[in-house]
Each structure stands twice: as C-alpha cells, then as structure tokens.
Protein 1
Amino acid sequence: MSRRGVLLVISGPSGVGKGTTIKRLFEIEDNLYFSVSATTRKPREGEIDGVHYSFKTKEQFEHDIETGEMLEHAVFSGNYYGTPKSAVEEKLLNGKDVILDIEIQGAKNVKRMLPEAVLVYILPPSIEELKKRLIGRNTEDEESLAKRLHTAYSELHEAPDMYDYFIVNDTVENAAVKIKDIIEGERCSKAAMQEVLKQILEEAENLA
Amino acid sequence: MSRRGVLLVISGPSGVGKGTTIKRLFEIEDNLYFSVSATTRKPREGEIDGVHYSFKTKEQFEHDIETGEMLEHAVFSGNYYGTPKSAVEEKLLNGKDVILDIEIQGAKNVKRMLPEAVLVYILPPSIEELKKRLIGRNTEDEESLAKRLHTAYSELHEAPDMYDYFIVNDTVENAAVKIKDIIEGERCSKAAMQEVLKQILEEAENLA
C-alpha cells in the first residue's frame, strides 16, 4: 500500500528566517525534495540543466504558462522563474514529499492548481522582532526597510484566510521541528492516503 | 501567545486495536485529556461523580441533548452515555488537547457541533487481518463476527468522506506515533493558532 507524497508550500515575510528554517528542516528530515525551478535566465558557469534549473527559452516558458504547466511563476530582473507542474506531480505520485519555498501570490496559484497543497506560513514572534531582524541584516536602507515592513503587514492580513498552518519562528530549531511535525501528520491525511483507502475498500467489496 | 487545544476524535472498526493504540498514545504524549463522559446509569461502588463519569438523571441528560450541550450521545443497555460540550470547550480554551474515542455517528455529530474537530480513522492493514483479529479475540460467535464485519464494511465506505486522517494500525507503536504526529501538526493549524494570529495582527495594526 503506497501513499501519495505531501506537497508543502512554505511562505513568510522577509526577515522571518524562512531560508535558515528550511535548511534545518532538510537536515532533520529525509525524504524531502525541492522541485527544480524553471527559468529563462542564461545558465551560469557550472550550472547543469535539470539539476540547478530547468533552462527554457522565453517562448517555451510562456507556452508552459499558457498550458497550465507552471504551478506559479514570477519575473525577476526581466527573467521568468517558475515551478513546473509535471516535475512536482511525478514526485508526489512516487510518494516523495515536495517542499516549495514561494511567496504568497505564488502559493495562491499552487493551491488553485493543486488543491491538495498544504500551505504553511512562518510568523515572527512579534512585529518588533521582525523589525529587529530586518535591521540586523544591515542590508536595508530606511526606505527599503519601510517597504518590506509594509509588505509584511499586508501579507499578515491575507495569510489567515489562505494558509493551513502557522508557525512562530522563535528559534530555527523549534520552527524546523514544527514543520517536520506538520509533514508527518499530513502523511496520514485523506489526500495522501487515497490509494491506501481505495485498496482496502476494494478488498472489502470483494469479501462482502 | 497562547494556542487553542486540539480536539481529536478517534474512530475505527471493532477489532482494529483502537483501545490499545489510544492507551499507548497517552503513554508517549503528555498534555492529552479525555473528557469525562456523562451517563444516566447508576454509579458503581467507588465511582466518583465528575471523575469517572458525570452522573445525571434521565431528565437532566435529555435537557442537555435538547439545549445542544451533548456533543454526541448513545444509548447502551437502556442508559444514556454522552460527551458534554462545556467540559470539552473549557479544556480547549486552556490549550489542552482533548481525545474523544467515539464511533462514526458520534464523530459526525461532534464535527457538526464543533467544526474545528479533527477526525482520525484507524484502518486495519487489510480486511483479512481485521477478520483474524476479531476471530483471535475468541469472544465472537459466528453470527456476531459476521455482524461486526458487515458494520466494518459499511463504515469503511462512509469514512473517506468524513474523516481528515487515516492511520493503518500495522503495529500499536506505529499507529500511536502517527496519531502523536497528527496532534503535533494540528497544534499549528489555523484553528489552534487563531489567538496567536489575532495578537500579531493587532500588533501590526498598531505599528502601521
């Protein structure tokens, strides 16, 4: 009896420590996969197609958007970046759990195209603490700090309706363990267990 | 910041090993509570009101059903048994996770009255194995075995639409650990985190 993989989308405001938390998550939990993103930017030295990125022309990428093959996409510095649906689907079918690290608009698209997706939002312990973390980075001038905080505020208003789970990132370790707990619980969800259920119902039919 | 307790309803066909699994769950996880059931049967020697059961008259119990104070109830040997809503609500408000061990019709009522309830169904590894376990009990004559299996079949058809999580009881230890995982994940669910979300949104409002 085989279960379907769990598709976990992780979002959070910038400065919340999402990158570090996900890095720790991959250290404490095996059987997790990042899907390889597609992009239209040129490969850099040493980057391998299908490993670091799936490199596409602008025409191919736009075709994939039109046909629904991109679960979500965004444009940075004039290049497309996105998550191909078929690569994610293949892993899920093989019982592998897939992690997507994307912002709130992308998460909304993924949920629309794959309703089984489980959406996790990482919260700061407080807004004060988020401010401190952003200032601590020393990479923000005042204007960009204000802009990031403004984005965080409006995200925090949208997140409660959209996301399934909320994690307070008080420490990286706690936050990573909580995401691990969510994945382990979701491995028993109706969506993940649909094949197992089908098999036992068939067996019951044959014996009844 | 305080979270709301998780209300977990556990069901499964007779013979699946639900009782042993729940016993093991309480050994490996603290902070779990059974709610005290209400009943109209007479207290036995040594039974304390409010500890073993909340003892009620038939009139009191029927009044509680009418006012919606009974999350679910059933009749055995002419006596009412049920789960009082206020006792469960109080524990959830105080951040305590509550386990209810009830059959499928009761679970349906609980979900209707408290939509945040998380419904877990325990499956046998196979129908053959369920048969073996029922026969192994040596307490079943052929007629009652056939009746229990028939009930199990019809439950298995109803469960996939109703329940949120499905656990295969291959070993008691695995099944107990999986329920523990589900509880830990659900402690981060939207329902459990509503107060935390409210507080951080209020803080954001005040700073914006």
Note: The interface with chain B takes residues 1, 120, 123-128, 149-150, 152-153, 156-157, 159-160, 163-168, 178, 181-190, 193, 196-197, 200-201, 203-204, 207-208 of chain A (CB under 8 Å).
Protein 2
Amino acid sequence: MKIIRESTPLEDGFRMPAEYERHQGCIMIFPERRDSWQYGGYAARKAFVQVAEAIAESEEVTVCVSGDLYDSARALLPPEVRVVEMSSNDAWARDYAPTFVKNSQGEVRGVDWGFNAWGGLWDGLYFPWDKDSRMARKLCDLMGKDVYDKRDFILEGGSIHVDGEGTCMVTESCLLSQGRNPGLSREEIEDILRQYLGVSVVLWLPWGIYNDETNGHIDNICAFTSPGHVVLAWTEEEGDVQYAMSRACLEYLEQALDAQGRRLKVHRLPLPRPVTVTEEECRGLDPCWDQPSRRPGERLAASYVNFYIANGSIVMPGFGDPADREAREILQGLFPERKVVQIPARDILMGGGNIHCITQQVPM
Amino acid sequence: MKIIRESTPLEDGFRMPAEYERHQGCIMIFPERRDSWQYGGYAARKAFVQVAEAIAESEEVTVCVSGDLYDSARALLPPEVRVVEMSSNDAWARDYAPTFVKNSQGEVRGVDWGFNAWGGLWDGLYFPWDKDSRMARKLCDLMGKDVYDKRDFILEGGSIHVDGEGTCMVTESCLLSQGRNPGLSREEIEDILRQYLGVSVVLWLPWGIYNDETNGHIDNICAFTSPGHVVLAWTEEEGDVQYAMSRACLEYLEQALDAQGRRLKVHRLPLPRPVTVTEEECRGLDPCWDQPSRRPGERLAASYVNFYIANGSIVMPGFGDPADREAREILQGLFPERKVVQIPARDILMGGGNIHCITQQVPM
C-alpha cells in the first residue's frame, strides 16, 4: 500500500463513483460497544447480520470484527461473507472506512480523511476514536489499494453524497460545524471536496434530520437515486420541528443546479412518526464516560433515506410504521432494476445511525 | 469461507505442494511477546522485517500484527508488504498459519490443525494459545479459501515437510510426543497425514535438533530441496550431543525410499558451533508465568536447515559462524536458480525458532 501525499485524486484523474454505480463489494463492522448498543449488542448484531446477508446476495461483503468477537461473527454470518479481524471503537463503516475513488482505467484508491468521532472534543460522541481513525488505512492495506492521506481534514463518509457526474451534496450543519474544521472557510472546504472527490459542484443543504447527533449528515436526509434525481426526507406535519428543516432543504434543492447544469428532481420520501427511546432500552446501555448515552423519550433520527444501494438491491430500514410501505414503494419506483429489501432497523437506529451508516461500498 | 468436515483433501483430490513449487505468497506474524523476544522485541522485529523484505522481492508477503503494533509494523515494513491486523499469542506462522493444499485445477484450500503451543499442558511452551489456534481459520477467511477442519489432531506446520511427489517427512520425537496426540498410534497418525497432505509415504526421522523446544521439528533438521534430495543438519563433532542424533537420522534416511521408490540423496549441511544465551539477553526477557523463559548458557537450536524457499530466493539464517559461508554455498549449489540471502538470525533464534518457523507459503 502506497500512501499518497504529493497529489490529489482530481490531479491524478480519480473521482468518487456514485453509490448506484457497480460495486466490487461492501465493508461493514460488527457492533459491540456497550454504550451504543443495548443489552450487549445482541439485537444490533442480529440486525447487522440481516443487512450483511441482504447485501451479500449481490456483492462481496467483508465484516470487520474485534478479535474477541471473531468467533461469534463467524458463527452468525453466512459463509459467503468474509470476516476479518480489525479493531474499532464502534461500528460505522460509512464514516471511517475509506472513501473510494476510481480512474478511467478502473484503478481504485482510498481516501483516508481525518476522523474525530463526529466533533472531537467539541461535540464528539465518544473518546477515544483512535481505532476508528486507523481503519481507512488498514482497509486499503488489506485490499492492496493505495491511499490518499487527507487526515488533516475532518470528514465522515456519511456527510457526503455524490452523483458520479461531478456533483457532491453536503449539509451546512455538519461540514461547517465547530467540531470539524473550524479553521477552514466554506470555500476552502469546497476546494478540498473538489480535489478529493473529483467533483466540480458542491450543493449545501442547510440541515439534516432533527436530533441527528452527527450534526446532521446528508445521508440521513437526502440521497441521489440517479443523476439529476434525489430523495428528500419529508414530513407534512407543519408542527413538527423537522418540517422547517426539510422545507428549507427542499427550497434549496429546487433552485440548485447540478454539475451538469440540470435542475434536480426532488422525490419526497415520507418520514416515519417520531421514534423515541424507551426506559427499557436505556437500562440496557452502559454510560459513555459518566453520562447516560441515551435518555428515555429521546427522539432518534429515524429516516428511510438511510438506505444502501447494493448491486442487486436497495437495503432500507423499516420502523414498524405505517409509512414503511409507502417509502418502500417510492424507492422501488426509483430503482426499478433492484429488489427493495426492508429490514427492521430500530436496533440499528438505537446506535445513532442506520443502514447507510453501517455500510461502505467498494467500487468495481 | 466454507468449513469442510465431511471429506479430506486426499478424497477431494488435494495435496500439499512442496515448498519449492511456485508460491502466491508468504504469511508472517510480527513478534511482540516479551517472554519470547528480548528487550521488547525491537531486535526481533528488525530481523523479521529483513526476512519480509527479502521474500517480498519475489512473492507477496502478508504480515499479521496486533492492533497495538499495526502502526509500528506499517512504518517498519516496506509498502509492497501487506500488513493486516490479526491477534496471536506469538509469531510462528509456520506452525499455526494454515497448511495449504491444492488440486489439479489449481484450487487452494487450507487445513486447520489443532494447535496447543507445542505440547499443551504436558510440555507446551506458553498458555494460553487461543489466539494462535484461531489464525489458520482467520487467514483462510481473509484469503477467501475454504478450510478443512482437523482441529481434533494436534500438528504444527514445522513438524512436516513434503516433497510434492507423495512423500512426507516427520520426526518421531515430535509427532509421537505425549503432548500432541497421545491417543493415536503411529499408524493412525500416518493415516491422517496421508488423508490431509495427500501423501502416500511418511518418513519418520528419529530426532530433531538437540534442545529444540518443539520436541524436535523436522524443519530444523532436515528439508527437501528437490524431489529425491534432502539437506540434513550435520556435525562432525563426535563428542557433541547432536552427533548421535544427526547420525541416527542419516542412517534412517540412507535406507529409506520415498513415495516414488527413490533412494534419497542426503546432503550434509554443517551446523554452526553451539549458540548459547547470554546473561544480557536473559535480562531482557519477561518470565513466562513465574518461570524464566531462558537461562544464561542455555543452548539454542541453531541450524541452517531452517531456511525459507521463496519463488526467487532462499532466505536462510546466519549466525556469525565460520560455517555460515559453507552452508550458504551448499544451498546455493542445491538451488542454482534462486538467490541465496543470508540474514543474521540470532534475534530470531532467541525466540526458539528460525526463518522457516516464522514463514508459511501460500501456493500459487
């Protein structure tokens, strides 16, 4: 594995493919952390296994797991899923597995961003995050891919979405947050995204999902479904705090042009009714340092936008909500070639993210 | 990764290739254990790096390392060597990485033997050995190779040598030791070797090298250099305890026939003068449980037979002994197509083995 510091992906002719382009496979991490996953993580691991099984139907899946849990992971996951030992602080492959870029000859390289647990000592979610922050490089090493070192810039994979045709979407609430890169201006951040994702246009949605502890990652509120098309998490409940946030995103998107000069077609994806944490769930969580990691009644950032696009399927969350079916049908309409698989995801959501957050695609 | 329990390699048409057949690559493990490697293992790691660099000139090298030492390993090893996180109890890839078998279509599978640290609770060398014993399976998982489960039979890779044409060599002192498979007869052990290595003839040398704490692994005393040819560790010092041991092996070999019915040609490889542990070295070793792991004056099992056959080179130990040169020239004569690289190996030998013990080839 070569570590590249003297050039950028853009300079070398690399760009980040869209998630709906062909994958070689998918990376996941087995959940274990007891202040993230209730009652020792048993329910979360079962849900992760369902996600891995669904994705493994159409692409290679590698699950990283601690040495302690390797045997459990191997026993729970089907033989076609590869299990490799790799230490981490938690299980968010989207955010600290590498972002992959590809050139026109088909070579794939990784980008190793800085990671500080979604805000570092400012408003990060746990400490330390040393193992997470080593994963991108370790995964490139494992896969024999060269890697761009961009650790001086804090970014999580869940805070960007690209259309594969020159456009990147982010949220202001996340990328301009004090806990990320407070010394950089919006223009400087845009320039880094252009250089390292090979894009020309950056779209800045104002917000993510209410109470999303990532400072509102784009991947929970809005996603490209094809060039020129996005789904936006949406509610008609004007009294809901999310309403104004989604509305502001819609207004931004309706006036935006993508890198190809297209006006975006915005498909509204309903949100489920608010999902809140129960007392019973809180009793099954260790404190994070001396603080409770969740409080009863706390609203979780549930959203159907947090789906994964596999080669042959859309793997999306379900919340046992009446909107589950409508959201599924909308995505099926937008991805007619792929089978939509809906997985009960409350036990993933409890950790603070969803199916997109726990997966990272490796381009073909 | 599929775990195979219903059939054996022989039944499925698989056999273990000889080490001098073409490799895809080599597996090593980074040394760390402080009761094995003096003064925190710094000198040992440098020697391991030299071995990895020499092998990497002609085949792919993967080095397994604990999460704690990953950064060190990555910094010390050249970029062309792959570094992967994998926990172990010590660094003997030969003994607990998989033994690989191959069929005529070129498919490669692993064999996962039982491992008990060279004798278990009878006369094993450390406790526990749980991480070591998981490595064969983990490595097959990592490489996407199916694996035969033969964990009910205790065997280390260093206790067997094959010629690739139906012959296996072992030592009685090791394979019949009380700490391995005391419930099995010699005939039953032979049958398992036939089934899992795809051989028809097992040659039983009586001994290994004096004071070799593996109960005298074959790979320290005798090795195939081509079909019909072996090198045997040899001393002309009749007063040395090793003399009778090597003499007994020679007499056995001179009357033996290999699987092709050939009389073996035995090439004598001189031994260095006895190598003993210094007080200074002992001071740099943690005790193993409450016992010193080495004692000043203790004789180490130094032997030039403990070399690795890479695609393009022979990587062999040197001991700063007058015999270094003669041994090198003998091996160069036996491997005219390969470059002989001699690496100062005292810091590897201190751990109890040598270059062959810390490597495991993966057939092409």
Note: The mean pLDDT of chain B is 97.
